[in-house]
Amino acid sequence: MDCANELHLARSAYQRGELTLAKRHFGRAHGACHDDKRLHLASHWGLARVGVRQKRPLAAARHLFLIGFAAIFT
After folding, report:
1. Helices marked H in 1-74 — which ranges?
2. What is the pLDDT of residues 57-66, one digit of tens each?
3. Pair 39, 28: CB distance under 8 Å
């Protein structure tokens, strides 16, 4: 799976308001991006943004926490 392509698909879906599809692609990108810190953090950021737009504050907060955790420990 191509991490950068999944992020592109996720961002496109997010911009179109297709949040379920965006979440799926951000999730796939997250799984594929562990080797690239910048892309890994971008996938968490995308998942946090989806959580905010879906009015799911706990999901958004979890990914914001993971951004900080990954930024420090990876």
Report:
1. 3-16, 19-32, 37-53, 57-73
2. 999 999 999 9
3. no
